[in-house]
Amino acid sequence: MDRMRLNLFTMNAVTHVSPGAWRYPGDRAADYTDREYWTEVARTAERGGFDAVFFADVRGIYDVYDGERETAIERAVQTPSNDPRFLIPAMAEVTDDLGFAVTRSTTYNHPYELAREFSTLDHLTDGRVAFNIVTSYLESAARNLGVGERLDHDDRYDRAAEFMEVCYALWEDSWDDDAVKRDREAGVFTDPNGVHTIDHDGEWFSVAGPHGAEPSPQRTPFLYQAGSSDRGREFAAHNAEAVFCSYPTKEGVRGYVEDMRERAADHGRDPDSLGFYPGVVPVVGETEELAAAKHESYRENVDVEATLALLSGFMDMDLSELDPDQPLEHIETEAIQGAVNAFTSADPDREWTVREVAQFAGLGSTSPVVVGTPEAVADELEAWYRDLPIAGFNVKEVTRPDSLVDFVDLVVPELRERGLVADADADTLRERAGGEGPRLPNDHPARR
Ligand SMILES: Cc1cc2nc3c(=O)[nH]c(=O)nc-3n(CC(O)[C@H](O)[C@H](O)COP(=O)(O)O)c2cc1C
Q1: Domain for residue 373, yes or no?
Q2: Domain limits for position 375
Q3: 303-346 tens-digit pLDDT
Q4: Does the C-beta of 227 come closer than 6 Å to ligand 1?
Q5: Residue at 445 is within a domain
């Protein structure tokens, strides 16, 4: 069996997906503005055998709940937040192998600029960077970025598809492998015959090229996606190398993974080349009692109001208007379909009231909390790993950095002992994640 891959899922913000946890005694989430906080996270994740630190990122404010932004601002619901990109060089400097996945939006960026950003980060990290491709979901973001109303959900995916075509052309086709000569004597840095325009003229973008940056170790950064609407799944099946899926139950994950593997095959790709990373929220203690007590104190600290504000933004549904004891009904949302599906269609055997959703989602939003001793948590992760065709897990935090430190010091040694977590012999993040080389595989549409 292959090695179980671990990513840390976090955010350059006070709150990511556990609203209220920043108030917990000793919690350091409020130090997110300190470089030293993040270099310590990087060291800990590397020590724990993690493949990557995965940064969520959003634009806009969570103002769907109760039709106003006060709750989100007061309770630090993903605002304030800083740009994750600028943390990467500092975190790369203190690590050798750890990768960094950065969330960037195809709706609010330009592909020429974004391609250069990732080439730069890939150079600076020696090939340890990944792009989490998102289409963005908050209406308030559209108002900030000068596009008036938010684009419709499916239009955002149309734009994303063309966005990626432009990026692939810049990353993969614009500079030949041997274009850069660095020949001091001849005075030739780059052979102009090895550098090509891309001449893209599409519905959304017009980009002549050539790419401004020379080829980086991976060329195209390792590609993540987390879409879960029909369009989102099609996009992921075409473009992604790793998929982040977040459902409260194993059955929810199973349904998603099976569907996505079929879609990947329909897109002419090897389903085994697509890595699945369900989210998980470990709460671990040396004994069962300690773990249970920790879980209880975490639950007491959940900020329910802030959780509802977060979820209302994810779902584009004002949860303040619903009867807390009514089951959450399935809707097709303009925001994150996966967040709705997690509590409606993903697991037909489970019905969720709004109150239950709010209580559950306060610790890690749509992912399961696994509570117990190091052995018990490792048992549960191992069971998922053996039972489902998944690459590993995106580990979500409650308290910071204690959730990570607990996991690394208590659970990882147990996983290592079982041979599940092992050091990888890999130079780039793509190879660490299972790729055969630093470059996109040949069956990826960008290489065909
Ligand atoms: C687990 C998970 C994590 C996500 N993280 C982010 C994020 O950090 N930033 C963001 O803008 N969108 C994020 N998204 C949203 C998307 O990846 C996607 O753009 C959005 O869900 C719309 O697509 P969909 O309706 O197909 O799901 C996340 C979605 C999921 C399911």
Answers
A1: yes
A2: 5-432
A3: 999 999 999 999 999 999 999 999 998 989 988 888 999 999 88
A4: yes
A5: no
